[in-house]
Amino acid sequence: MRHSTDVSRAEKRQLAVASASLGPWGAAAAVGAIGGGVQLALKTIGGDFGLGILTGSLSVALMLFFLVGGTGAVLGRKTGTDHRIRRWARAHPWKVAAVPAAALLVTDFVMRQILSSEGFFGSLWDGLWRAALVAGVIGVVGSVAASRRG
Fold first, then answer.
1. How far apart (Å, rounded) are the C-alpha atoms in residues 104 and 98?
2. Distance CA 76, CA 27 (A)
3. Best exposed site among 9, 30, 59, 117 by fewest CB in 10 Å?
4. HEC profile for the chain?
């Protein structure tokens, strides 16, 4: 018999996505655009040209976008949102961190496959290590913030 407090795997995934969606995605887009723009400018000033620098700059922009948005989601400071979802996000920072990490993996991989001559496994590796970094930072920040609150 299932209790009302039990949550199925599907419900946990839905809660993780809902929690991640409450991040500061507008600010995340601004940070990503600035970071990607700085990367592009530095590479261009250095004399590099081509799709390689564009791909690298977009990858930095995507990583910053998902990092800032996901971190904001686990910190839960946005007002006017469902407090139950915020509490769940604070209690499960690693599950919430998996959502932006997975989104980064997919978008970075697809972007690399379209814009670069990088092979399948090279694109996959680049996406995996970036996604792992994003998940690690978001998960640690969320865990530390939760331990300080609790």
1. 10
2. 14
3. 9
4. CCCCCCCCHHHHHHHHHHHHHCCCHHHHHHHHHHHHHHHHHHHHHCCCCCHHHHHHHHHHHHHHHHHHHHHHHHHCCCCCCCHHHHHHHHHCHHHHHHHHHHHHHHHHHHHHHHHCCCCHHHHHHHHHHHHHHHHHHHHHHHHHHHHHHC
**Distance (Å, whole) CA 68 – CA 28:** 5
End-to-end CA, the chain: 31
* pLDDT tens-digit map of 15-46: 888 888 888 999 999 999 999 999 999 988 87
pLDDT tens digits along 67-126: 999 999 888 766 566 678 888 888 889 999 999 999 999 999 999 999 988 899 999 999
Q: What is the pTM of this model?
A: 0.87
Find all residues with CB under 8 Å of 32, minimum gap 6, and list them.
Answer: 61, 62, 63, 64, 65, 68
